[in-house]
Specification:
Strand order of the largest sheet: 1-2
Radius of gyration: 22 Å
Helix content: 40-55%
Largest sheet: 2 strands, parallel
Structural class: mainly alpha
Number of helices: 9
């Protein structure tokens, strides 16, 4: 590579965030010399570098770089937000967590995060399908025998939803023995789901890409 030397001294003074921004800026600035442009930035949730690059207008004022989200990091946001909600409501004297059935215990939060990621991954390229699938996992998780709420779950014999699959086979659905959490908690966590199922966020998850390759390289470096 032109200009590369095997051993060099320090060439940046400042924060690691500023170093990342300057490094990415240099990559973009010299890309056209090699006959291509970087049109997307795969983000881990930190928008500072993305915003910085667009203020620099590397490819001119008419061309904006698109931000994509790592779906691994996005799914972690759900778990982080739910844990934060449990703590905040506890401070108000309201218990969402605990060990009782239907509480937002750690095991339940991990399940919901996994359901959320699967909803995105299994509907690659379709924002509305992602959104429907995300809310399907939410309402499926509060369903009871007295009040089944599987109206957003996929229908058909091969549905992941035991209730819809049983109906498609002409059978009586089994009991809701694995209801992860109580419906009374729904209103308190719905704003989290609305934020993480927004069109803007899901649009940036369309390709279902991850930073696995980058992180593997960084672990070696």
């Amino acid at each position: 590579m032109c200009g590369h030397i095997s051993s060099c001294g320090i060439n940046h003074v400042g924060s690691s965030c500023a170093m990342e921004q300057e490094a990415v800026l240099k990559l973009l600035q010299r890309s056209e010399d090699n006959g291509f442009r970087y049109m997307t930035l795969l983000s881990d949730g930190d928008a500072k570098t993305y915003q910085y690059l667009n203020t620099k207008e590397v490819y001119g004022p008419e061309i904006k770089i698109k931000k994509e989200e790592c779906i691994n990091h996005v799914s972690k946001r759900l778990g982080t937000s739910l844990r934060k909600a449990v703590k905040e409501w506890r401070a108000r004297g309201v218990s969402l967590g605990g060990k009782s059935r239907g509480s937002l215990k750690e095991e339940t939060i991990k399940k919901l995060s996994c359901y959320y990621q699967n909803a995105i991954r299994s509907n690659k390229g379709n924002v509305e399908a992602m959104k429907t699938a995300i809310y399907a996992t939410l309402f499926h998780s509060i369903s009871t025998d007295q009040k089944p709420q599987h109206f957003k779950c996929p229908t058909g014999k091969n549905s992941w939803c035991f209730f819809q699959a049983a109906l498609a086979r002409g059978e009586v659905p089994g009991p809701h023995v694995k209801t992860p959490f109580k419906e009374t908690h729904l209103a308190k966590i719905m704003p989290i789901y609305q934020r993480l199922a927004s069109n803007e966020l899901l649009q940036s998850c369309l390709r279902c890409v991850t930073q696995n390759a980058n992180e593997s390289l960084h672990s070696i470096i």
